[in-house]
Task: structure prediction
Amino acid sequence: MSDLDLFESLLSCGTVEALHAKTASIAGQLGFDHFIYGVQVNTSLTRPYQFILNGYPKEWRAHYVEHNYQEIDPTYHHCITKRQTIPVIWDSRVFKGSKEAKMRNESREFGLLCGASFAVHGGHGEAAMLSLASSQDSYRAQQDILSLIGKSQLLACYLHEAVQRIVLSKGPLLLTKMELTLREKECLLWAAEGKTGGEIADILQITERTVTFHLQNAGNKMGASNRQHAIARALSMGLIAP
Amino acid sequence: MSDLDLFESLLSCGTVEALHAKTASIAGQLGFDHFIYGVQVNTSLTRPYQFILNGYPKEWRAHYVEHNYQEIDPTYHHCITKRQTIPVIWDSRVFKGSKEAKMRNESREFGLLCGASFAVHGGHGEAAMLSLASSQDSYRAQQDILSLIGKSQLLACYLHEAVQRIVLSKGPLLLTKMELTLREKECLLWAAEGKTGGEIADILQITERTVTFHLQNAGNKMGASNRQHAIARALSMGLIAP
DNA sequence: TTTAAACCTGTCAGATCTTACAGCTAGCTA
DNA sequence: TAGCTAGCTGTAAGATCTGACAGGTTTAAA
Result:
């Protein structure tokens, strides 16, 4: 079975449980003992929606949540907050602050001796990351990570796609149903550029009433309570570009 | 030199020309004779901005543009229009329509015998793709593509990051050092959640006038023309990301 | 042919935002 | 002491947005 077939088998998982098992299996075949996948959708800025597939030791995960380590975790910041596209390999340069180093040392005690994190961003504003870790810390184990970095990144891409199909399409957001029409996007885009209704009307050669209409429709689709909210949602969900 | 070092060398390219040469070199080392990278940003929805790094035969590229093949190109639709995250390997299932098959056959005449396309999406709404092609069409060449698919995907990620850095460093907005006060960020965040001035006043236990004051100051700092604009800028500049 | 979606337009009262004026305190630093 | 910054507050006219009313065309799929 080629690597690609292996990854594609993720796409045929029908349930979260099957996906979890399959991912654990593939990670194991690549030589990783632990994995964790998380995706975040900024449907709300103060309370973003998160879905997590946890293949880490439960104790460490509990410890992480309890200490609110997401706040300081540099891999989280790299992949999710800063939305980088390249992977990050866990080394001392990454965990350079004292708090970060402390967190890293604690994670070692739970068996996460070396590893790397991979980012995937979907087209609907969601940011995801996959972390793969080994309970070996030998030079050999670290070299293995480097040599497997391409396959690992690809695993992240396929896993994200699989999660997308299983969870996000059925999830509370119905991202796929939140498609905006061309006019709605145009109006939102110009509104985000600071244009008033009248100015947008001039730009698009329609009446101000129609601009209001499109912005209203867009806002309703996204559950926005006013124009500002609609713009913020469209931006953070990647429906329009700044 | 490990693969990772090779990919990371892309990040130190200072110019588009250097990046082009380096990418061609890396693609060559992976066994690909041709590459093309394109990124699309929907700044204008009717005429989106595109940046392309063309390592395809010039004749084919000209032919592609002349016939407006972007309209029917299934790899473009997969990576850019539909914003998928997984790669697509060029086979007959992909180019299944008659127009698509015609396009594919013509591309073969220009030396693009087998290949694959890889998608990367950044966190700011941009969609990018990297296509890698070989002028060999042997079973061996096709197997090589499959075995190199992980590295190819990773190349796409690094190339995208490199393009981001070069384009952003030349960009007109070098406002990353913009600093907002705590109150300004708080007000912006709640405004982005759709709260009105009065509601934010209640939340922060200050008067509505003061909310207006902070939002005004934040807007002035960012050169925003109104509240919507300030929210959009703060979001796209990552100033109020939680 | 019917249906649906995208698109477009009008009026109008009331809520909200913008921008101008003006003035206050607290804390820090030169 | 003076100067600066962050934070806070007030008034008021005019611009802009919101929401609820009501109506229309075009296009493409069922």
The first strand of chain A starts at residue 34 and ends at 41.
